[in-house]
Amino acid sequence: MQFSAASIPDVILIEPRVFGDSRGFFMETFQAERFAQAGIPTGFVQDNHSGSRHGILRGLHYQIRQAQGKLVRVVAGEVFDVAVDLRRSSRTFGRWTGEVLSAENKKMLWVPPGFAHGFYVVSEWAEVIYKTTDFYAPEWERTLRWDDPALGIAWPIPAGEAPLLSEKDRQGRPLAECEVYP
User: Fold this and answer.
1) ∠ at Cα 72 (70, 131), nearest 5°?
2) Does residue 69 fall inside a structural domain?
3) Which of 61, 117, 120, 136 is catalytic?
4) Domains contained in the chain, number
5) Which of 34, 78, 131, 179 gives 44 a disulfide partner, CB atoms 3.0 to 4.6 angstroms apart?
């Protein structure tokens, strides 16, 4: 596996070694010792799997308490995956980083606790699987507005189209009004 910092150093892009032949492929998606050496916690407590059609935007979600680190990968289709630093004491507070994750490129993204996370579905269908370092706690879940001009996220949404959002995501708050981490 190759681990490299995204444009925000605490967010880590992971490129697994893929072994393929005429039968298909094999790759490790998690190996505790290598992840620990790369500075990624290995105590995951929950796996989540979502399926979404083209044009869906999910996020930007975070838990103000029981903050979750997320190890994200795509097993079908393609998404543009985004992490926003909400740690007020961080030199990258309020900055975002984004990566294309797909079943084809097999890349994974480590999003540490203290970040909001979301993705936009580029393909006709996508399935996202992610491990979390803490349990889902709906009472602590918050939503950062996906299109907050203060963030300036360059979502790959085609001109003239609007993303499909849940009601929760439509009601996301701008960064200036969000609860953030110390």
Assistant:
1) 50
2) yes
3) 61
4) 1
5) 131
